[in-house]
Amino acid sequence: MLQSGDSPDPISSLFMTAPLPTFSVIIPNYNNGPTLARALDSVLAQTYPAHEIIVIDDGSHDDSRAVAGAYGARVRYIYQDNAGVSAARNAGARLARGEWLAFLDADDTFTPERLAVHAHWIARDPALDFLLGDQDFRQPDGSFMHHSIDTTPFGRDLLARHPGQREIALDEGDFGPLLADGFAEIRTLSLPRATFEQLGGFPLGKKIGEDLHLVVRLCAVSRRAGVVAQSLADYYIYPSSAIRKDVVVAQRNFVETLEELAGQMRGAPDGVRRGLREKVRQARLSLAYMYLRKQLKKDALRSVLPLLRPAPTVSALRDVLSVLRGIR
User: Fold this and answer.
1) 64, 29 in Cβ contact below 8 A?
2) How far apart are CA 237 and CA 250, in angstroms?
3) What is the Cα–Cα distance from 13 to 119, expressed in whole angstroms?
4) CA 152, CA 160: separation in Å to the nearest integer?
5) Strand-pair partners of 260
């Protein structure tokens, strides 16, 4: 059988159920001139070439235009007034002509087989609604920190259930745990452009959690997905990122995004709603612990008390008691 990432030979190609899909890679950029070339080089180095590379410059005032311009016709560069990362990604998707979309931030990179492994699997199994993969977390200097899948509870369980398997299929029963305790990362997400358009893209006005917002809604309309247990992207951790400038504010915004989304997902499948509720619980508890470390005890308690409504669960009661112990 043809393995993902391998170049198909003439004989094995006969057994493909569909031609290889085309990919549009969308890169939102805001003052990432120092890293934009690295990101673009990683896409241009793909073993299965992207149909197109679209850079949406979200109001940069550095040398990003010149960096992208050096690539000539290989990169489509569009400048827009600053409107946020969701607006930039959505603008790129509107311009895209590939059948599938892949997203890369301008300060991260794809590994060489990022598109190939997904493209070959899609060709053999066109019924897949979306695909994900592992990724590497790295320091700004490129030094390796850790993988993504095996640092999450659902990821470890998935690897244990499918030892040594590179391609792992997910069904609806897996989506809840994926959302609650998983590794859904925008850099390794591939989804059909038509599905992205159906979902309305990324939510506007969200500085934190906009990627998870999309993935939750994607899971709600999906039946089958694929996970490649191979690192497909490098995620660089910068101290100056929006999340790390003020972790409490970032976490509070994350909770607000999740709460708003939960209110919109009342008609979603039970598993997706359970996974989202668990994610909300974890986010509120994390926010409470952040407040406790700052000795903001009332704020800590206010963070978890909403978990008791409309009816307290065992987990919610345990969380509130944990915070109360921290207050004493």
Assistant:
1) yes
2) 15
3) 13
4) 12
5) none
The pLDDT tens digits of the residues spanning 35-80 come to: 999 999 999 999 999 999 999 999 999 999 999 999 999 999 999 9
CATH architecture of the domain formed by 10-238? Alpha-Beta Complex (3.90)
Structure tokens at 308: 């008791």
What does DSSP assign to residue 23? E
Question: Please, what sign has the CA dihedral across residues 201, 205, 211, 212?
Answer: negative
pTM, two decimals, is: 0.91
Q: Which residue has 């409504």 as its token pair?
A: 309
DSSP letter for each residue of 235-248: EE--TTSHHHHSHH
Token pair listed for 166: 């590179």
Q: At what angle do helices 270-293 and 247-264 cross, to 10 degrees?
A: 160
- Tell the residue number behind the tokens 């997400």, with chain if given: 189
Classified as helix, coil or strand, 322 is helix
Distance, in Å, from the CA atom of 112 to the CA atom of 233, rounded to the nearest integer, reads 9
Interval 146-197: pLDDT, tens: 999 999 999 999 999 999 999 999 999 999 999 999 999 999 999 999 999 9
Tokens of 194: 């038509």
Domain limits, CATH 3.90.550.10, in the chain = 10-238
Provide the CA 309 distance to its chain's centre, in angstroms. 29
Per-residue pLDDT, 243: 61
pLDDT value at residue 8: 46
Question: 3-state DSSP call for residue 29?
Answer: strand
The candidate with the shortest Cα–Cα distance to 101, out of 25, 203, 201, 200, is: 25
Q: In the chain, count of helices (H) and strands (E)? A: 14, 10
Q: Which two tokens stand for residue 52?
A: 């197109």
